[in-house]
Amino acid sequence: MTSVAETQASLEAVLKDEIIRMYQEVADKPQGTFHFFHGREAAELFDYESDWLDRAPDGAVASFAGVGNPHLRSRLKPGETVLDLGSGAGLDAIIASWMVGPNGRVLGVDLNPAMCLKAQAHAAATGTRMECREGRMEDIPVPNGSVDVVISNGVINLSFRKRRVLEEIFRVLRTGGRISITDIVSAKQLSQSIVNDPKLWAS
Ligand SMILES: C[S@@+](CC[C@H](N)C(=O)[O-])C[C@H]1O[C@@H](n2cnc3c(N)ncnc32)[C@H](O)[C@@H]1O
Predict the structure, then answer these.
(1) Is-above-0.85 flag for pTM?
(2) Which end of the chain is more exposed for a tag (fewer CB within 10 A), N or C?
(3) Residue ID of nearest Cα to ligand 1 atom 6
(4) What does the alpha-carbon distance between residue 4 and residue 12 come to, in Å, rounded to a whole number?
(5) Is residue 168 within 6 Å of ligand 1 at its C-beta?
(6) Residue 41: which pLDDT band, with cuts at 50, 70 and 90?
(7) Which amino acid residue places its CA nearest to atom 9 of ligand 1?
(8) Domains of the chain
(9) Is residue 203 over pLDDT 70?
């Protein structure tokens, strides 16, 4: 008989493949049709400053796939260490790197190593720096108490283990650290046909 843990592990593996496929497609073919907002249109909708969007590399803007604007409340200061969970093509991490300046540090974490390389290349193209580590937000590859601020944009809803993600965020934050997350919550229980559809879950 299959245990609950085994069932969850196999569902997570299916979801991981779908997430990698979906966001890789946004990064490789941003002009395609997706059933979620993305690109410059989405960033403008979420009040990203035009200056940021003009200054960031076209690829990072075109592949932006967030659900809000974590920079509105992050209050990042020069010299701070920021962690961007699910850094994607890098737009949010690049904006954070401008805010923390040359004495600050931006770490990204992404499931997909190809997205990490893309985000780092986009950051380098603007003359700034972010380090992206391949990994999962459920096991953040960052030491305890080493981060001033965690930002994330539309990623935690993708996890099967949201409580675990929050525990990990609190583990890596230093005492007095901050969180600025934009994400999706549902006020009502989703139907089983939605919950069981990896394509809908992944987007
Ligand atoms: C919604 S995008 C993030 C947008 C990004 N902040 C930007 O500036 O465009 C989602 C990213 O989260 C990553 N991701 C999804 N699930 C993840 C997980 N469990 N751990 C780490 N990264 C994850 C995906 O690979 C994808 O690159």
Answers:
(1) yes
(2) N
(3) 87
(4) 12
(5) no
(6) very high
(7) 64
(8) 4-202 (3.40.50.150)
(9) no
Convert the pLDDT of each residue in 94-134 to its tens digit. 999 999 999 999 999 999 999 999 999 999 999 998 999 99
- Which residue lies with its CA nearest to atom 12 of ligand 1? 86
CB 48 less than 6 A from any atom of ligand 1? no
Q: 1 C-alpha to center of ligand 1: Å?
A: 34
Lowest-pLDDT choice from 19-28, 40-49, 138-147: 19-28
Query: With a 6 A CB cut-off, is 130 part of the ligand 1 pocket?
Result: no
